[in-house]
Fold this sequence. Notes:
Layout: H1 3-13, H2 17-23, H3 26-29, H4 33-40, H5 55-68, H6 80-98, H7 103-108, H8 118-133
Helix pairs in contact: 1-2, 1-8, 2-4, 2-5, 2-8, 5-6, 5-8, 6-8
Amino acid sequence: MDRAERADQLHRRGYNCCQAVACVFAEEVGMDEATLYRVAEGFGAGMGTAKGVCGAVSGAAIISGLVNSDGNIDAPGQTKAKSTKAAGTIQRKFTEQAKALICKDIKTGNNGTMFTSCADCIKIAVRLTEEVLGL
């Protein structure tokens, strides 16, 4: 089973979109799944149910930081550009594929017809995370 399918299974078990995306990369970022689950919990339904940026994309951005950051808190910013560039690339490609970036827009689409399901948003975000970050 690939990561996108595993993320879909996690979502069906009750993980929010952000958690489903972030948690399938636990091993690659050297974190346990429970910690990533906790980190991503507040990003569900477009961040705290605000229907803002899709949680699946937020999960990808979390992974971008964990993959690219050097974690040097004494000299912050040395790796910030790499993390944000990768997250921005994922965001742009996601928007092209899902037809929107904002959860509310994705779910209401044109004239109330959903652009992309949560399951498909999760799969898109996982695949883009793999592609852009080389995982």
